[in-house]
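hey can u run this one w/ zinc ion bound, need the structure tokens asap thx
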Amino acid sequence: MQYRITKQRQLILEEMRKLHFHPTAEEFYSLIKRKLPGMGLCTIYRNLEKFQELGLIEKIQGVPIRFEGNPQPHNHIKCVKCGKVEDLPARITLDEKAIKAMGYQLHAYTVEINGICLPCQKNDKTKEE
Ligand SMILES: [Zn+2]
Ligand SMILES: [Zn+2]
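ok here u go:
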């Protein structure tokens, strides 16, 4: 059976692409359920999986599985306290010349940036008081 992008599915995809963080299916569901009344978590999950198969969004493997809706190449920052992963506004670039100078042919690279997000910093402060 052919998968058709219905209006409802289009809306799910659009909502997903607007996000600059990476929700789990549950988080995404609670965000959009008011806009899509009558749609259950299972349907949302199935559609996200399908979008991922079609290459429209990406899945970030881990526990729990998160979804990436931002189609632009970008870097991530991860909160070491709550595990939240957000998009960085600027892309990190690598000094490729320096790598070439070492004689390497560059294939791929990943950058991991960790920090503590604002809500977690606030949480820490209230605990200290
Ligand atoms: Zn945090
Ligand atoms: Zn992202």
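The pocket of zinc ion (ligand 2) is lined by residues 22, 68, 70, 74, 76, 87 (CB under 6 Å). anyway lmk if its weird
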